[in-house]
From TrEMBL:
InterPro entries: AAA+_ATPase (IPR003593), ABC_AA/LPS_Transport (IPR051120), ABC_transporter-like_ATP-bd (IPR003439), ABC_transptr_urea_ATP-bd_UrtD (IPR017781), BCA_ABC_TP_C (IPR032823), P-loop_NTPase (IPR027417). This is ABC transporter ATP-binding protein. PROSITE patterns: ABC_TRANSPORTER_2 (PS50893). Keywords: ATP-binding, Nucleotide-binding, Transport. It comes from the Bacteria. GO terms for molecular function: ATP binding; ATP hydrolysis activity. One of its GO terms (cellular component) is plasma membrane.
Length: 248
């Protein structure tokens, strides 16, 4: 359980001379639910982009289950078992909720099975519908979903692909308090049988749902620990309060 699933070592990302990540070491153990925070521009999305093959680092290594991901193409990384959500939505609005899940699940089916006409819903799709709590809306077009429901559908679309690592970029952004609570519960459920990394800004959400938190600042790892430890860390206070003063 405590074995490392993801090991980032000595990661450097440079965009036209700008150092977005510097000498970053970061480890996720199997079965962990980890939150990644940091002020705007800290490098959180860049880290996810490197893990998923969207951005190539200047140097460093990203090992997933012992295998190097740097240099692999995006679809190969997805096939290896790494799934992510984006800040922008990827659901098909005209398709029903269940068809969106079915399509996502089909991603891993061999072509003949994909083309064969199927009856009913697969166990994986039914389980995902149940997990995301959208059973009552299964046959409605995804276009009618609220913002929160759409985010849950996207998480469901990842889960049916059976990834071993889920990377979620700001899943509660723009949600109501009630939707945030339901998302927190959903993350806990998903984390029972997946390793999950969540990028999140909302401190209130973190206090209620996070256990271990990693803080990035200006492309470097600032500190790691429980929510209480991280909040009590003077460096974290400086980074966040310093920003608040600047904005005031
Ligand atoms: N493709 C790119 N080209 C140039 N600079 C980039 C590129 N992508 C990111 N950056 C810069 O790298 C830094 C880190 O960006 P990143 O999006 O990873 O931060 P973040 O921690 O996710 O911030 P936010 O909370 O605002 O999403 C920022 O200063 C950003 O402007």
């Amino acid at each position: 359980m405590s074995e490392a699933l993801l090991e980032v070592r000595g990661l450097n990302v440079v965009f036209s001379g700008f150092h977005a990540l510097t000498d970053l070491d970061f480890t996720l153990r199997r079965g962990e639910l980890r939150f990644l925070i940091g002020p705007n521009g800290a490098g959180k999305t860049t880290l996810i982009d490197v893990i998923t093959g969207l951005t190539r680092p200047a140097s460093g290594s990203v090992r997933f289950d012992g295998r190097e991901l740097v240099g692999r193409r995006e679809h190969r990384i997805v096939r290896a078992g790494v799934g992510r959500t984006f800040q922008t939505s990827v659901v098909f609005e005209e398709l029903s909720v269940v068809d969106n899940l079915d399509l996502a699940a089909g991603f891993r089916r061999p072509l003949p099975a994909l083309l064969r006409r199927r009856r009913g819903v697969s166990d994986a799709v039914a389980a995902a519908l149940d997990t995301i709590g959208l059973g009552d809306l299964a046959d409605r077009p995804a276009g009618v979903l609220s913002h929160g429901q759409r985010q849950w559908l996207e998480i469901g679309m990842l889960v049916v692909q059976r990834p071993r690592l889920l990377l979620l970029d700001e899943p509660v952004a723009g949600m109501s308090r009630d939707e945030r609570d339901r998302t927190g519960e959903l993350l806990r459920t998903v984390a029972r049988d997946h390793t999950v990394l969540v990028v999140e800004h909302d401190m209130d959400f973190l206090r209620r749902f996070a256990s271990t938190v990693t803080v990035l600042h200006e492309g470097r790892l600032l500190c790691q620990g429980t929510v209480a430890q991280v909040q009590a860390d003077p460096r974290v206070q400086e980074v966040y309060l310093g920003r608040a003063k600047e904005a005031a």
